[in-house]
Amino acid sequence: MSSQADIATTPEVSRKTGGATLRGWLENSGIVIIFVVLFLAFSAIVPNFMTERNIIGLLLSVTLIGTVSVTMMMVLALGEVDLSVASIVAFAGVAAALITNATESSTIGVIGGVLAGGVIGLVNGVIVSKLRINSLIATLATMEIVRGLAYITSHGDALPIGQDDFFLLGSASVFGLSAPVWVTIISFVVFGVLLNLTAFGKNVLAIGGNTEAARLAGVPVDRLKIIVFTLQGLLTGLAGVLLTSRMGLGDPKTSVGLELAVISACVLGGVSLTGGVATISGVLVGVLIMGSVQNAMSLLNVPTFYQYLIRGGILLLAVAFDRWKQTRR
Amino acid sequence: MTTAAISAPYLAFDDISMEFPGVKALNRVSFGVKTGEVHALMGENGAGKSTLLKVLSGVNTPTSGSIRLDGQPRVFRNAREALAAGLAVIYQELNLVPNMTVAENLMIGHLPVRAGLLHRRRLRERALAILRDLGEAIDPDTRVRSLPIGQRQMVEIGKALLRDAKVIAFDEPTSSLSIRETENLKRIILRLRDEGRAIIYVTHRMDEVFDFCDAVTVFRDGQKIETYDEIGGVTHDQLVTRMVGRAIEDIYGYRPRPHGPTLLEAQDVIGPGVVEPVSFTLKQGEILGFFGLVGAGRSELMKIVCGATRASGGTVRLDDRPTRFATPGDAIRAGIALCPEDRKQEGIFPVAGVSDNLNISCRRFFNRLGIFLDPGRETTNANRFIDRLKIKTRNARTRIALLSGGNQQKVIIARWLAETIKVLVMDEPTRGIDVGARSDIYSIFYSLAEQGKGIIVVSSDLSEVMSVCDRIAVMRQGRLVGIVDRANATPERLLTMALPT
DSSP character for A161? Predict the structure, then answer.
C-alpha cells in the first residue's frame, strides 16, 4: 500500500534537505517503527510472548477492536465520530441470539444481527446528515438508546443460543486462523482499498478536510455520510455477532467502553479527529499496539489497575508524538 | 508625503534569507522602513511578501540574516516576542475569536484582573477607550462573529494599538472590504503613520499605492527587486514591469468575440439573500459580469443558480431545457460550476495535495471499472494544468495550503477546466491575486468563451467588470437593478446603480 499516504502525510515537513529522506521516512512511518520496536522488545523480554499460541491468541483478542476500527476510521475521516459502536455490538449480539433461537436457523440469526447493526448505523447517518445534529451528541444519544434496546429485548439477561452451528462462526478455522481473525483481515483489506484506491475514499477525506468545499465541488456529502455510518453499523453488527458466537451468549452488558478503545486505536494510528486525515496502515498498527501491550501486560501479570495507567500513557505519548511531527516545519 | 519622516530606518531587514525544503522563499532581502511612513510591499503571489511578514512577526525564524529595530539586532523566536518588541502584523485571516466579545478579543492576553477575577468594568472601559480612539462606534460587548469584516479589522488594529506597536504591518487589508470600509481604514492608517509609527502595507492594488503610500518595495521570486523611497519617483507602468519582470501593456487584454444562442436563462429566480425575482440570460461565448457592493446578493444568487442553495421560486433553463438542481453535484453534471468567493472556507481542501484538490470532481472520468482510482492519470492531469495555468508548486502532491492564494485559485479554476462544463461562475476570481496571475486568469476566461462556454464573473472591482465583461448586471441590496452593455458602461453609471439610494 504505497500510495496510502497520498492525502495524509506528504513528506515536506523536514527542514534540511540533507538527511531529509531518512527523517521524512521516520516521521511518516514513525508509529510503524514504534510498533516494530515494541514488538521486538516484547518478544525478547516477555516470556511466552513470541509463541504461536500466544500470537494467535493476540490476534483473536484484537478482532473486535480491529473490525470496528476500520469503519471508525472512515467515520473519523469524515470529521465525525460514532460513540454508539459498543451498544451496537451488544444489541446485534442479542438480536442474533434472539432470532437464531426463534427461527432455529443460525443463518437467519446472523443476517438479522448484522442488519440490526446496519439499521442503527443508518439511523445515525440520517440524524447526522439530514437533521444536522453534531455526531458526538447524536451517537451519544443512540449509544444510550441502543444499549437500552439490548436490555429490553433480552429482558436484562444474557441469552444462551440453542443452535450448535452458531458457534462454528466463532471457532471455525482456516489456515490456522479463526473466522473472526479472517473477518478482521478482510475488513482491513476492503476498507484499505476503499480509502486509498476509490473516489469514495477520496471524497470521504475531502468532506473531513472541508465539508463546504466538498459540497460545492459536487461531492454528495449527505449521501456519503449516511453510507459511511451504515457501513459502520453493518460491520459493527457483524463484530457483535462474532463475539456472541465466541461467547455462546447474546449479552446485553458486553463491550462497555469499546468505542473509546476503538477511537484510541485510530488516534494512535494517526487518524485526525478533525477529519480529512487517515491511513489504513496507521490504524492497523494502532490496533496491534493496543493488543500487544494488553497481551504483554497479561503475560507479565501486571495488576489490572496498573494496566489502565499504561494504556492511557501510551495514548498520550502517541498523540504527543503526532503533535511533534506536525509542529516541525 | 509625510512630514515626520526621519532619515534612518526604524526597522531594517538585513540580508534575510528563508529557506523551506526545496524552496528559497526569501533570498538575501535587505531594506528599511522609517517611522512616519507607509511602506508598500508589492509583488506577485509567491514573491515572498507573506514570508517576510511571518519573519517579522516571529512565526518563521530566518535561515540567515537579521532584523534590526532602531539599530539593535533582534531575534524573535515566536509571535509573542515580536509583539513585545512592538511589531504587530494584521493578517488577511484575522486572528480573532468569533464567539468572544469585542472587549475580550481586544484585551486577550492582557485581561484586567481584580482579586483573581476578571475585572469586567475595567475591561469594558479600556475597550471602549480604544474603540473611541479608532473612531469606531462598536459596543464592546458585541460578539465578534456578528461584526462585518471591516469592523473586525478595526478590532485587530485596536489589539496592535493596545500593545503600543511601533511597527504595524497589514497583509492585503482591503481585499475583502467595501468601498466605505476601505476609506475608513485608509484614514486610520494615515493617522497611525502621523503618530510616528512605521506602517508596512502589502497590497496588489496599484491605486492604493499611489493614493496613500510613501515608499514602495517590489518583490519577485523571493528577492527584493527595488525600493523606491519616494512614491513620486516611480510610475504605474514601471512598478508593474518590475513586479512581473516583463512589460504588461494591458492586464485585461479584452478579446471581443461573437456570441452564440442563449445558453443559460434565469427567470424570476428568488431565494435566500435575493429579495426580488431576478431574470437574466447568458449566451454562448459571453462573459457576463455581476457588479455590486459587498452584500448586494450576487454570491447568494449564484449559489442558487449553481444548486448550492435551494431556490424558493423561479426557473433556470440550460440549453433551453428546464433544470432543477438539488445539489451542486447535479449542477456540475448538467454543466454549471461555481468557483466560490471564499477560497479558504469553500474552495480548497487544505490538508490535501494539489492533485487531489484538482481532481476531486473530474476523477470520475478516469476511474477504472467505475470505482477504482487511476493515480497515474490523475497525476498526469494535474501536471497538465500545472503547466498550462503556470501554477507555482513543488509538485502535484504538495499540500495546497502551502501554495500562495493566486496559485490556489488557479488550482480551483483547473478543477472546473478539467470538467465538461458549459457555464463557469466565478465569484471574485481575482481577489487578492497579483497582476501576472490575473492576466493569466482573464485570458483563460477569453479562451473558454471562444470555445462557446458562458462565463459569469461576480466582482466588486469596477475596472475588472468594465474591462473583462461583455455585459454587466448590477445588483443592489438583493435586487437586480439593471444590465448594461459593455459599450454603455461608465464607472459613474455602474456606481450610481450599485450604491444604496
Answer: P
Restricting to A residues 4-43, those with a Cβ less than 8 Å away from any Cβ of B are: 6-8, 10, 12, 14-17, 20
User: Rounded CA gap, B78 and A52, in Å?
Assistant: 53
H or E element, residue B500: none
Could you tell me which chain A residue has the CA closest to the CA of B364?
A: A199
Query: Are B399 and A209 a contacting pair at CB < 8 A?
Result: no
The CATH number of the structural domain formed by B262-498 is 3.40.50.300
User: Which span out of B1-15, B43-57, B277-291, B486-500 was modeled with the highest average pLDDT?
Assistant: B277-291
Q: What is the assigned CATH class of domain B3-244?
A: alpha beta
Give the three cell numbers for residue A98: 434472539
Distance of CA A203 to the CA centre of its chain: 20
Query: Please, what is the end-to-end C-alpha distance for chain B in angstroms?
Result: 35
Closest Cα in chain A to B331: A218
Task: Please identify which residue in the block is written with the cell numbers 447517518.
Answer: A125
Residues of B in contact with A277 (CB under 8 A): 351
Residue ranges per structural domain of chain B = 3-244, 262-498
Yes or no: say if B170 and B199 are a contact pair by the CB < 8 Å rule. yes
Please determine whether the domains at B3-244 and B262-498 fall in the same fold group of CATH.
yes
Sequence-ordered list of residues with C-beta below 8 angstroms from that of B159, at least 6 positions apart, any chain: B88, B105, B106
Residues 42-81 of A with CB under 8 A from B: none
CB contact at 8 A, B434 and B443: no
Q: What percent of chain A has pLDDT over 70?
A: 89
pLDDT digits (tens, 9 = 90+) for A180-234: 999 999 999 999 999 988 889 999 999 998 998 998 888 999 999 999 999 999 9
**Strand duo B454-459 + B471-476: pairing:** unpaired
| Contacts of B439 by beta carbon, 8 Å cutoff, 6+ apart | B248, B251, B252, B253
Chain B CB contacts of A197 below 8 Å: 372-373
* DSSP class of A10: -
pTM: 0.75
Report residue A258 as a C-alpha cell.
469499546
